[in-house]
Write the structure tokens for this entry.
Amino acid sequence: MNRTRKRAGAAAGITLVELLIVITLIGLLLCVMLPAVSSAIDLARAVDCKSNLRQLAFAVRLYTKDSGGLYPPAWVIQGSGSRGWCGGYHSGADGPTMDVTESPLWPYLGDKRVLRCASYTPAALKYAASGEISGYGINSQYVAGDPVSDPNDGAAGMSSYARPAAVTEIRHPDQTVLLADCGRVKKGVVTEEFFIWPLTKPGSKTRNAATIHFRHSGQANAAFCDGHVEEMEPLELDPAGDGRCGWLANEIMDRN
């Protein structure tokens, strides 16, 4: 009987050692696999983001056909509120709200979910208003605004941003950014931004705030005026280095 107990104890001891080995191996495998899983998730979000931008760019194209060939305006102040390309912005007692159904693109979208970048979440970023879902900005300097008719391109105090450009004014649509991942760093927090600008405005040496958000593994997705979407690397990041906000080359912001 004693021999039987010893054999059983030995067998249990071996099983326990094997179990510990298996647990250790599983832990090591998880350590190896987690970065790959994280990268796969980031890639899936980037692909979803590209799809959103293609749909937005297509909606813009449909809009231009019904608006005499003009792009949607970046922003227009209307009484107590404003109406931008992404929706109606209203002030209230409980704070500002954004109504995406008031976007000039809404009739061509039909689904407000395409306005949200999957990597733009309330947990990581700050929204400029409640009720909105975005993460994207429009080229308000050369496409949704016209520096020829208004060099100030809708600075604070003006009644609206400058006249949007006409499709015929974009001489190289495949090289001119229309929409892109957007954001702005404020006190270390990436806050929502609806517009993208070049590094400097025409005739000015003043640097604009960085608004391109390179949130997809150091890259930003951008839709061009011809409808194609591609990943863009930053020409220059914000000196603060927070939130991966930065610049694209002026040449692809201009109408060339």
About this structure: The first helix runs from residue 2 to 66. The first strand starts at residue 75 and ends at 78.
